[in-house]
Design brief:
alpha/beta, Rossmann fold, 3-stranded antiparallel sheet, about 40% helix, elongated
């Protein structure tokens, strides 16, 4: 489907019924429309010395334990790309949806780029299940406290090298251990404290309409959320320029649709259903 007005009109009842709960699950696709390359694309690869590493090798606790500086160089380069990007029409449409739906709205995002929050979605209703690249925590004995990434490290980068004073800022001010990016790595597990696992599943169990945007479900929690909504017999809408594992699940759900289109085009149309 292409998301024409007649197809989208069938969703109107979910927005007008004050008892329904609407959840949006977003992935890298919505951020790609803001110019942030997808994590698994060519930009995900990183050279350390003479060796080229894949994302599944770089984004691990194991690699951080071996080469923390190299991991930080990679993440700070990606942070510079994220900071240079701006929320697009799709992000802003989700802000309008939250403003209209209030507690009937929930947002689950795999993206660590902070664009949803910068656009205006609330931290209260946004579950950042893979963390946020703008925050750190101590990798040593200091506990679980999240710390904002120092502003001095937030800049656009064209090189891997970090200055001595920048490296100093990447160490815990209390114990001197390396700070680590507040992100979920490939060799780590979802939990509630950092990655809102229980909250995401609770939201899935309350959802009447799940709108999936720009993700193919390559990680476990998004799959669990989608399967929970599907197994409860609720409706799934999948918005993606390409077919993916969620497409068939959506079309097999009651009143479900696969809409082959860009999020920045379709989400503003869906957001109007909140007010018309």
């Amino acid at each position: 489907m292409t998301g024409n007005s007649s197809e989208l009109a069938s969703l109107k009842r979910y927005f007008s019924d004050k008892q329904t709960r609407i959840t949006v699950l977003t992935g890298a696709g919505i951020s790609a429309e803001s110019g942030i390359p997808t994590f698994r694309g060519p930009e995900g690869y990183w050279t350390v010395g003479s060796k080229v590493y894949m994302p599944q090798e770089m984004a691990t606790l194991s690699m951080f334990g071996q080469q923390p500086l190299a991991v930080w160089q990679w993440y700070l380069y990606r942070l510079g790309v994220c900071l240079h990007a701006e929320p697009n029409a799709g992000h802003h449409a989700l802000v309008r949806m939250e403003q209209q739906l209030a507690d009937r709205f929930g947002l689950i995002t795999q993206n660590i780029d902070n664009l949803h929050i910068r656009a205006g979605n609330s931290l209260q209703r946004t579950l950042q299940i893979h963390g946020n690249i703008n925050h750190t925590r101590c990798s040593g004995p200091c506990g679980s406290q999240l710390r904002p990434l120092p502003d001095a490290l937030k800049r656009h980068r064209t090189e891997q090298t970090l200055a001595t004073d920048e490296i100093r800022l990447l160490h815990c001010p209390d114990c001197g251990a390396w700070l680590r990016p507040h992100v979920l790595w490939f060799d780590e597990y979802y939990d509630e404290e950092y990655f809102r696992y229980e909250s995401a599943m609770a939201l899935a169990n309350r959802t009447d309409l799940l709108i999936i945007v720009g993700t193919s479900g390559a990680t476990t929690l998004p799959n669990q959320v989608a399967m929970t909504v599907y197994n409860r017999g609720k409706t799934i809408i999948d918005i993606n320029p390409e077919e993916n594992p969620f497409s068939e699940l959506a079309m097999d759900s009651p009143d479900g649709q696969f809409i082959r289109a860009a999020a920045a085009v379709i989400l503003p149309q869906i957001a109007t259903l909140c007010t018309t």
